[in-house]
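A favour, since you know our structure tokens better than I do. Would you make up a two-line entry for one protein for me to read? Write everything out right here, beneath this request.
=====
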Amino acid sequence: MSSSTDSSLLQLALSKPVLKRSAACALVIGTILFTINHFDCCIINGHWSHVCIVKALATATIPFMVSMISSVLAMRHSR
């Protein structure tokens, strides 16, 4: 990829609509995944270790990144 292509992809990824959509996706899907995967150890038992916090952040980050990448690819494809 050329530098101008990289720059335009980055601009798409950091655009307000893509960031808002990705954040909403991360909030909804990340919350569901966190509840499924970590509810027993973190919420019920109250064991909030550093590992649990990192896992919680990763659980929200993955849907954010997937949504952002898919949005950028779809927008690039439609041009």
